[in-house]
Write a structure and sequence with these properties.
Layout (H helix, E strand, L loop, with lengths): L5 H14 L3 H5 L2 E9 L7 E4 L1 H12 L2 E14 L2 E12 L5 E13 L2 E8 L2 H8 L4 E4 L2
Length: 140
């Protein structure tokens, strides 16, 4: 078994902080000049630049959850980019029905901080952003 990269370890911690609604801990992984793109059709779709804009974006989106988590399942590394297959399983406030879906998030790190964070609806779109081939590291 190969040793996990510092970036993959950081991403595991990033998702854990997000899932427990710890906005400060989530944002601690972000570079002050973070660039975020969330796919069209997502509740908070759009482009966000800078730590404060992303803090507001994360807090706004996370505040709608009554319970649930975004669980990273597989990490794919290609060059300086990491793609993460994510299982989203959340229940929103005021709803009894759970939302269950999958997205692929793309990240780029510089000096140990996330400088880019993209979300994609398909692996193909994520791979086009990252380039291929990819190597996978399971979260198991």
């Amino acid at each position: 078994m190969s040793q996990e990269s510092q970036e993959v370890t950081a991403l595991r911690e990033f998702y854990a902080a997000l899932s427990r609604n710890d906005i400060d801990a989530t944002c601690a992984f972000l570079d002050p000049q973070i660039y975020r793109v969330e796919f069209e059709g997502a509740p908070n779709s759009g482009t966000y630049r800078g730590l404060e804009a992303l803090r507001e974006h994360i807090a706004s989106g996370r505040s709608t959850w009554a319970e649930g988590a975004c669980k990273p399942e597989v990490f794919h590394t290609t060059g300086d980019k990491i793609l993460v297959d994510v299982h989203v399983h959340v229940r929103l406030h005021g709803n009894e029905k759970w939302i269950d879906g999958r997205v692929v998030d793309g990240f780029r790190f510089v000096n140990g901080k996330i400088t880019e964070f993209h979300s994609f609806t398909t692996a193909e779109k994520a791979q086009a952003w990252a380039g291929t081939p990819t190597s996978a590291t399971s979260s198991e």
